[in-house]
Amino acid sequence: MNAGLNGQGTKARYRGLQKVSRQRYIFLFVALAPSLLGYLLFTLYPNVLSIYYSLLDWDGLTDAKFVGIDNFVHMFQDKFVWRALYHNLLLIVVVPVLIVLISLVLAYLLNNKTYRENSLYKVVYFFTNVLSTVVIALLWAFIYDGSFGLLNGILGIFGLDMNSFYWLGSSSTALWALVVPMVWGGVGLYVVIFINAISAIPKSLYEAAELEGARPMTMLFRITIPLLRSVIRVCVVFIVLGTIKGFELMLVMTNGGPEGSTDVIGLYMYNLAFGKDYHNYGYASAIGMLLFVILVAAKYIIDKYYPEEKVEF
Amino acid sequence: MDWVWRLLLFLWAASIVFPIVWIVLQSLRTNAEFFQNIWELPSQLQWGNYTKAWTSYNVGKSLLNTLYYVGVSLVLGTFLTALNAYALTRMQFRGRAFIWSLIMLSLFLPGINALIPQYILMKTLHLTNSLTGLIILDSFGENVFFLMLLGGFMASFPKDLEESGAIDGASLFQIFWKIIVPLSTPGIVTVAIFKFLGLYNNFLGPLIYLSDPAKHTIGVNMYHANMKMQFTSDWVTMFAGIIIVMIPSIIFYILFQKRIMAGATMGAMKG
């Protein structure tokens, strides 16, 4: 009887364990499957498919035709691709440098000066980062307008009559005019990041430098920036990759014009696939693959030529 | 020399505040007044511009669309992320490492090359031109940043948390919902804040997927309104429209300013 009871107990416990483990599997399935399946379907599968699409000649209406590497051959002869890449290159050179330099100076000043308004400035600077690209783009479109824009109005006050010059309407100024909202919209985030990083640097370093008679900007370039190397590196990677693939601002403000002077590679791809007239999914996908390669290469180059160095203080 | 630095800080702040204040002021004047002189203050407050923006741009409808899209994606997405982070950080099971490595793969995918196949896929599934389709696209998926943030949070709880729950006879879901979620609230709120910002400011997704104007979200609506304005020259109404779009962002920023800044820097520090 004793043995029987014992046996029943084990069986009950076994059944209980089985129930627990079944419940566990159900829970795991419910917890993991929706996100994982969505990720496989909407992210991984399209990424794999994009390789195949880049080998097709397909306008979305008629049947797709397999053309091998024709799209890539055409791409290297397409002067619009080179023009767009050239604009990307200009932006990669200018935008990260401006964003990092301006945010470093602002963060340094906010950290080392004790003006009453500093805490308010931090909040104001960051504000542009919660605005959508559309709002930033429209705001700056109003600023740049020829006849009623804010910029020409301000220049007018200082006695510079711009004769209703439309900043986004001239192919010599449009791309540079776009750099300003890109920098303006990005700086706030990096100011906050750099403020946090700078406040981790011991005050004694600055005090010692001050005793030696160092000026504020000397301390910024000799103490702060060298010690922030690894944080700056992360930010540079982030801004460079964003600049290579970003095109929303151009899409809203100029749509690549005038005369293609603000066309970037992402926008060119977008317009080929989703633009108003002719659609070319195959060719656009080939450009997408090119973008993929460029992004991976950019990451690799930054990693190689901007090696991570551990600093200690 | 000191005043130069102070002026520099002031000028950057002014570059942000001044254009916005200028647009608010001009949005309360008539077009005739505005074309006359862009510097004057409103002589009589033209609140009618806001009513006109609301009706002629169909702002009410697009705000409702935005509310539906952002609201459902936010609740569904945050819930799934929390559930996912819990299972991936606090439960041991076969294949866990494999799933993690699959998710980490997304860090190498820039996403832009997948735009076209994703669109074709959505079209095949009849999910284009539908707010619900967009919700599905944006809620079901993995996000390394959110998983790390929440997972790191959950991993810091003591190991026997689940055991004590299990002894009381609670099911796994009850343990998750009644013990883990309340403890993780600060992390979940941060995730929700960033999801909100991403969703409310999402422009490319709604632009590509929603072709019917009746389904436009507020951002896409303003984009099209601005295209039309190039022919109507109705500046003050456009100004009013822009301010309406900015109001939710401003309110949200005032409410969560500290958390937004803290969360935004977390990514860079860890990286």
Task: Provide structural commentary.
The complex is a heterodimer of chains A (313) and B (271). Chain A contains 13 helices and 2 strands; from the N terminus they run H-E-E-H-H-H-H-H-H-H-H-H-H-H-H. Chain A is mainly alpha-helical and 313 residues long. Chain A has 2 domains: 2-53; 70-305, MetI-like fold (Orthogonal Bundle). In chain A, helix 3 packs parallel to helix 7 (174-198), helix 10 packs antiparallel against helix 13 and helix 12 packs antiparallel against helix 13 (281-305). Chain A is globular. Mean pLDDT of chain A is 88; it is low at 1-5. Chain B has 271 residues and is mainly α. Chain B folds into 2 domains: 1-46, no CATH class; 57-270, MetI-like (MetI-like fold). Chain B is built from 13 helices and no strands. The radius of gyration of chain B is 23 Å and the shape is globular. Chain B starts with a helix and ends with a helix. The mean pLDDT of chain B is 90.
Q: Can you tell me the number of structural domains of chain B?
A: 2
CATH class of the largest domain in chain B: Mainly Alpha
Rounded to the nearest angstrom, the distance between the terminal CA atoms of chain A is 74 Å
Residue-averaged pLDDT of chain A, rounded?
Answer: 88
Q: Structural class, from helix and strand content of chain B?
A: mainly alpha
Q: Give the radius of gyration of chain B.
A: 23 Å
Spatial strand order of the main sheet of chain A = 1-2
Q: Strand fraction band of chain A?
A: under 5%
Sheet-strand content of chain B, in percent, reads under 5%
Q: Roughly how much helix do the residues of chain A carry, as a percent range?
A: over 70%
CATH topology term of the largest domain in chain A: MetI-like fold
Q: By CATH's scheme, which homologous superfamily of the largest domain in chain A applies?
A: MetI-like
Distance separating the two termini of chain B = 37 Å
Shape of chain A: globular
CATH superfamily of the largest domain in chain B: MetI-like
